[in-house]
Description:
Elements: E1 3-4, H1 24-29, H2 53-57, E2 63-67, E3 73-80, E4 83-90, E5 98-99, E6 111-113, E7 119-124, E8 133-138, E9 145-146, E10 154-158, E11 166-171, E12 180-185, E13 191-195, E14 201-206, E15 212-218, E16 224-229, E17 240-246, H3 248-251, E18 255-259, E19 265-270, E20 278-283, E21 289-294, E22 300-305, E23 312-318, E24 322-326, H4 329-341, E25 345-351, E26 358-364, E27 367-374, E28 401-406, E29 419-425, E30 431-437, E31 454-460, H5 474-481, E32 485-489, H6 499-503, H7 512-526, E33 530-540, H8 542-553, E34 560-564, H9 570-575, H10 585-591, H11 598-606, E35 620-625, H12 633-645, E36 650-655, H13 665-683, E37 700-703, H14 711-714
Parallel strand pairs: 1-21, 31-32, 31-33, 33-34, 34-35, 35-36
Antiparallel strand pairs: 2-3, 3-4, 4-5, 6-7, 7-8, 8-9, 10-11, 11-12, 12-13, 14-15, 15-16, 16-17, 18-19, 19-20, 20-21, 22-23, 23-24, 25-26, 26-27, 27-28, 29-30, 30-32, 36-37
Amino acid sequence: xxxxxxxxxxxxxxxxxxxxxxxxxxxxxxxxxxxxxxxxxxxxxxxxxxxxxxxxxxxxxxxxxxxxxxxxxxxxxxxxxxxxxxxxxxxxxxxxxxxxxxxxxxxxxxxxxxxxxxxxxxxxxxxxxxxxxxxxxxxxxxxxxxxxxxxxxxxxxxxxxxxxxxxxxxxxxxxxxxxxxxxxxxxxxxxxxxxxxxxxxxxxxxxxxxxxxxxxxxxxxxxxxxxxxxxxxxxxxxxxxxxxxxxxxxxxxxxxxxxxxxxxxxxxxxxxxxxxxxxxxxxxxxxxxxxxxxxxxxxxxxxxxxxxxxxxxxxxxxxxxxxxxxxxxxxxxxxxxxxxxxxxxxxxxxxxxxxxxxxxxxxxxxxxxxxxxxxxxxxxxxxxxxxxxxxxxxxxxxxxxxxxxxxxxxxxxxxxxxxxxxxxxxxxxxxxxxxxxxxxxxxxxxxxxxxxxxxxxxxxxxxxxxxxxxxxxxxxxxxxxxxxxxxxxxxxxxxxxxxxxxxxxxxxxxxxxxxxxxxxxxxxxxxxxxxxxxxxxxxxxxxxxxxxxxxxxxxxxxxxxxxxxxxxxxxxxxxxxxxxxxxxxxxxxxxxxxxxxxxxxxxxxxxxxxxxxxxxxxxxxxxxxxxxxxxxxxxxxxxxxxxxxxxxxxxxxxxxxxxxxxxxxxxxxxxxxxxxxxxxxxxxxxxxxxxxxxxxxxxxxxxxxxxxxxxxxxxxxxxxxxxxxx
Length: 726
């Protein structure tokens, strides 16, 4: 049976809080309505009071609530002595919460439960180097047990309920590029080799019995193969055989989700034979695939897997907004109950093994994330007797929710701005799904247009193989509160819109991908949303590259740019990729450019902002992590050196103990303080004084700190032995 969304209707959970405006055509479809010319002379409405940066960019008060397998406990991340740590509490009594870890300096970002709930597993790297170590800590408290060695990169493959005392883990201590698979005993940390990776496999998949059963293998041309292991013994050396192929154009659209309970079928998301990725069930013996659900509008991006049957029961697609559809009557009824119980867009983030208790997160542009326990309607299957929930809130009836916590309680009562979904046409006709937030007080009549053109920040997502989405975004709220319109554009190469849209970005860094951003700025100017003389471009990772490329390739378009960990020289970037990216090297070369060929090197040089630094006239703010393994420090050093030699206005902040992004809350706050002051100088928006926002941060002002008010005193110069930008 295939469920197809022939026409996407109103997204689920569009209750009063989620209404964008009365004029749905203008706000959702972007029908081109324009305000009366007389409106441009109307006196502007005064903006709301400034929201403190610390309220938006400090660590959340709570993060990632997850139920234990039996539902009696809930684990979550919350600050302990200033850093995010792992906590646990009875699911019906958060007042009894207890910290499990005491990590200092960086805090934690990821964890999961062991199969029986006796341990909580978490990972940590060394100051951003991405060599993740896996640890297990007893759920009732105790000392953490190191499951993987230092200096190696580890990733969890499986923690199955059928094998609760151990987990499957990949470790690259023997070969940095091709990790081996180990079975690790949680109570002792003892490791047993399960699979020596002699065939260059990646993306391993275990069945529900915690047996290694499938893997993907990358070909030299970037396409992939799916292999399966015929033996079903616990750690038997069964023969591997090739089951299926994935064409290069489908690689980024295909994902193995898991085996069903029978061990004979694999649930996956797959775009083979179609443009939009579909939900598929594949026979693990024959490789035959049955389409379970698809949509002509967008890719399938998420799936509910029943914790009892391991069968898919609902799926989500996301065009303008995420929308869920049930595959069964029970799942449809549960979606209806969620729609009735929650105001914002909801996501089921955790389910007990007996499926009688869920954790649901909800959010909306003006509703910062909050969590609740949810008691679903009739279960889809009989629950095992051993997994009965014993600590659920007594007042909960089927279909009811019980609040857990607000993730950002400091934002309660703050004046937040609505986000507007728009469809913008690129110059070649491609549709670019985009999200606009207007400055505070600029749209008193609620028509989705400011009274007069405003300074605007083009906020570019990273990846670039990811996407911007509708919902609460602290960066949008921050910039709108300071008086800027904010526009985020899903340029070609972004994910979720089908493989033609994704692959339209191949070899188009700095060209058509960048042109999409240029076209979007032109749209905002034509709609009188943006003041053409006051537009900034800002982003991190690929977004940082786009900021550099925007200043270098369209120097008259942007008044200034902000680049955090953005590459400037695509050849040196690709030559420095970490060894554990070996499986995606061919794909990167096909999508960005091949530095191993003369033609590829020429293309990469033509797309590298470094070689066009002489064209950059606008002020630039650069931020860089000193331990970044993805975009090494040299990428920022090179562009700063080139601009410094020309005496162009550039400000350079180095965070010596950060990786690809800013994890320490003090560093994150310092960066946003510097960015706000920089944008205030460039675009004229409101600026909160730096104050104490650099207190406790590890940051050096390597260049141009005097160009941002208050920054020179806040960001110290590096110590004598610290390397400075050339």
